[in-house]
Amino acid sequence: MSPPLLRCQGLAVRYGARTLVQGLDLELHAGERWALVGPNGAGKSSLLLVLAGARAPDAGSVSLAERPLAEWGVQSLAGLRSLVTDRWVDAFALSVREAVHLARYRLQSGLHSRTHPDPAAESVVLRCLAAMDCATLAERDIRTLSRGERQRVALAAALAQETQLALLDEPLSHQDPRHQVQVLQEFARYAPLAMVAALHDINAAARFATHALLLAGDGSWQAGPAAQVLTPERLSPLFGTDITQVVVASHRVFVSTGGALA
Length: 262
Description:
Strand order of the largest sheet: 6-7-8-3-9-10
Order of helices and strands: EEEHEEHEHHHEHEHEEHHEE
Low-confidence stretches: none
Mean pLDDT: 92
Number of helices: 9
Helix content: 25-40%
């Protein structure tokens, strides 16, 4: 097997006095799709920020492409990983197309893009907008979009960035059922892109993921192939409620059947 794209060793993430993740050892390879699953406040978003290099770990280390994350320059890092959150600040009037073009800024040699053009930009941007069902929004002012539309534009920008790793915080938030399926299918097609996606929807995680990382919020974690980790035996205590599994049209479906566990 090729060397891991992303490696965590002894990683700790804390929030104030709380230890959210402790001693995380993890290897992620090209083409793997990891679902990050856990209850509210378990540290999923905080861990994604650490993996992206937007926040320093409280202990341990993260390496990307066999090099410590802290050693990568900003522009080089932007060529290796993308990060999508569900929080945006759109302070200026930009068209959707222009906003997605900004994801490719690293491919310019400087501020004078006419001197140093990105010849593939327009075709890549339009292709990624179409993949996220945003082609008809291309000339819309980004400030006029619904939250679901805005989230899909952010996902299109992540694809247009053309990185090896995508870190996605609730990529299905604000999406209707059709777009939930479309987002997962389109990202899965971009092999060998590796992904880590924080997901509240267990069924989406089971359908999307090759691997899963469960966070309990008390420092403990469980990781491995999705079929072994996303099980009622592990999910029920994680969420503190009875969860059962059924199979519908060849898909595993998880259902919460009761209140809080005793």
